[in-house]
Automatic annotation (TrEMBL), chain A:
Residues 92-287 form the ABC transmembrane type-1 domain. This is Sugar ABC transporter permease. It comes from the Bacteria. One of its GO terms (biological process) is transmembrane transport.
UniProtKB/TrEMBL annotation, chain B:
This is Sugar ABC transporter permease. It comes from Sphaerisporangium melleum. Keywords: Cell membrane, Membrane, Transmembrane, Transmembrane helix, Transport. It is found in: Cell membrane. One of its GO terms (biological process) is transmembrane transport. Residues 89-306 form the ABC transmembrane type-1 domain.
């Protein structure tokens, strides 16, 4: 025993002596790296904070020559204008509705297809799987023109049904790709036991497999909610200027941006921006761990 | 045992039928939606690109590769392709370099406190802050940066420059600068995502690898270039492909942020913007689809090439 502890002690000595030398290296490098980290943090927070502050400024203060000055007073009237006059409240509720419904159906249909593709062997299984996954390789801009006419052919342009169906369809490739891999990692024994006990395929899926797949489902739900909430291209193509009351939030913000110049209501624009940012900020602070893992899930797999 | 109740043959058959019924019922709706709204438009796009369809005539006329011939002489198209080339070279490089630097600091930059490598102080806070822009809509970010980049003294950046006595810069109005200004916004928004991505890659490397190297006297730079980089190569490759594909998009940002939608003087235009404009402003659907096909082949070529070129032997650990 005594001979065994000896080398450990010897090995420990150089470590201790090496300590101070490395520490001084940490000093210079550590200080510089901290500066870099703080600078980037300011670069991220700065523009967002500035937007919030600008929403309280007067028009003259924003157009004036001191863009970095603090607002002279905290006037909430611009928030009221953005909410009611610029219809931001309406756009936001529209988006909550559309994204809520389409995420629900994306997850339902996506996990149904993924489960069957992951767990059942049948003729055409691989072909269908690759059909879904191939959707990941195509840029949506390639489909843009025909997609518009397909939706128009069903009479669904300028309707939420059209937007929701398109959102679901375009969210399917990634959802199916990710969840197929996920269902494959789950143990087969539980589901088989349930089937032996006379549980139907459908019930096994909803009552046993879905709860087991919860971590994967949560990641992809977050991924889809954020992706659909932030979608800009599809709304501007599918919801035209004729149905301005049906517009979604990103469209609304872009439109307020164009109008702010004519109407010279800059505080209103920044209030609208703040209102679009604020819910995301709150949701992000509460769920940041899940959001980070949800968004990076696809890349790590 | 249960099968015995119904008789072996009938039970087997009905169980099989039930399984097939289940498979069909679960696949029918998702597959139908997908084929109607995703697959069929993609296939139609290739056909429409060979026609002179303008949206009014019921029967678009087949014109072969005429649209593609016109594309070759289209200055705006080539400008857009050049911009994608620049974005493709610079954007992933800058984003990945910054993200790697930060993620190294956040995971391993804290020095060898008591022989253990740790991240710098406050690493968790930085990760949370850096990632936030990623959850914002690109359209929102575009509008936000318009105020930052405003060309006169009222812009935030120019306000900062004025504070140190420099004249205002036309960030978005200078043809040589505008695309870089837009690229900076993309980098601003995506660095946090890649910091988190690379951090996940780095935390998967066993700590003793670093500790052994540090014990052998490897400095920070050796630790980064000889150990960290090769071990997270797979993750970097994924990041590269993601950013490359993003370089072929940039639609929302250019549409919202740039002067005159792709200006000044087409200095910032990108293919997605031209496709959208050609189709929905000028109603030249055939020509827009031809651009879409070109974009598709550019994207596919990039993805195939980058997967081939960056392939390395996988290091098991």
């Amino acid at each position: 025993m005594a001979t065994r502890t000896e080398p450990v002690r010897v090995a420990k000595t150089p470590r201790v002596t090496a300590g101070p030398r490395q520490r001084s290296g940490v000093g210079v490098f550590g200080a510089l790296s901290h500066v870099a980290l703080v600078v980037w943090a300011i670069l991220v927070i700065g523009p967002i904070l500035w937007t919030f502050l600008a929403s309280f400024k007067t028009n003259a203060e924003i157009v004036g020559d001191a863009p970095l000055a603090l607002p002279s007073g905290y006037d909430w009237s611009s928030w009221g204008r953005a909410w009611s006059k610029a219809h931001l409240g309406r756009y936001m509720l529209n988006t909550v509705f559309v994204v809520g419904v389409s995420t629900f159906f994306t997850m339902l249909f996506g996990s149904m297809a993924a489960y069957v593709l992951a767990r059942y062997r049948f003729w055409g299984n691989r072909a269908i799987y690759f059909l879904f996954v191939s959707g990941l390789a195509f840029p949506v801009f390639l489909a843009l023109v025909p997609l518009f006419f397909v939706v128009k052919g069903f009479g669904l342009t300028d309707t939420y049904t059209g937007v929701i169906l398109v959102y679901v369809a375009y969210s399917l490739p990634f959802t199916v790709f990710f969840l197929t891999a996920f269902f494959k990692t789950l143990p087969t024994s539980v589901g088989e036991a349930a089937m032996m006990d006379g549980c139907s395929h459908t019930r096994t899926f909803f009552q046993i497999m879905m709860p087991m797949a919860k971590p994967g489902l949560i990641s992809i739900t977050i991924f889809n909610i954020l992706g659909q909430w932030n979608q800009y291209l599809l709304p501007i193509v599918l919801l035209s200027g004729n149905v301005e009351d049906k517009w979604l939030i990103t469209q609304g913000i872009a439109n307020i941006n164009t109008n702010a110049g004519y109407e010279a209501d800059w505080p209103g624009l920044f209030a609208a921006l703040s209102m679009a940012i604020l819910p995301m900020l709150i949701v992000y602070i509460i769920f940041q761990r899940q959001i980070q893992s949800g968004l990076t899930a696809g890349a790590v797999k | 045992m249960r099968r015995g109740d119904v008789g072996p043959a009938g039970g087997l058959l009905s169980a099989k039928m039930r399984t097939y019924g289940f498979i069909v019922s679960f696949l029918a709706i998702p597959l139908a939606l997908y084929v109607v709204f995703v697959i069929s438009p993609y296939i139609q796009a290739f056909y429409i690109s060979l026609t002179n369809w303008k949206g009014i005539s019921a029967n678009p006329r087949y014109i072969g590769f005429e649209n593609f011939g016109r594309l070759l002489d289209d200055e705006v198209f080539w400008a857009a392709v050049r911009h994608h080339g620049l974005l493709l070279l610079a954007m992933p490089l800058i984003t990945i370099a910054i993200a790697l630097f930060f993620s190294f600091l956040l995971n391993l930059g804290g020095g060898t406190g008591g022989g253990r490598l740790t991240g710098v102080w406050g690493a968790r806070f930085y990760r949370v802050v850096y990632f936030f822009p990623q959850v914002l809509a690109v359209a929102v970010v575009g509008v936000l940066f318009q105020a930052i980049y405003r060309p006169d003294g009222t812009g935030v950046l120019n306000g900062l420059l004025a504070a140190v006595g420099l004249g205002p810069v036309g960030w978005l109005t200078d043809t040589g600068l505008a695309l870089w200004a837009i690229m900076a916004v993309v980098v601003w928004q995506s660095v946090g995502f890649y910091v988190v991505l690379f951090s996940a890659g780095m935390s998967a490397i066993p700590r003793d690898v670093f500790e052994a190297a540090a014990l052998d006297g490897a400095g920070r730079f050796r630790l980064f270039f000889s150990i960290t980089l090769p071990l997270i190569w797979d993750t970097i490759q994924v990041g590269w492909v993601y950013l490359g594909i993003a370089a072929f998009d940039c639609f929302a940002l250019v549409q919202v942020l740039s002067v005159d939608r792709g200006g000044p003087d087409n200095a910032t235009t990108v293919l997605p913007l031209e496709i959208w404009r050609t189709a929905f402003t000028f109603s030249k659907f055939g020509y827009a689809s031809a651009m879409g096909v070109a974009l598709f082949f550019l994207t596919i070529t990039f993805a195939a090439l980058s997967l081939r070129v960056t392939r390395r032997e996988r290091i098991e650990f």
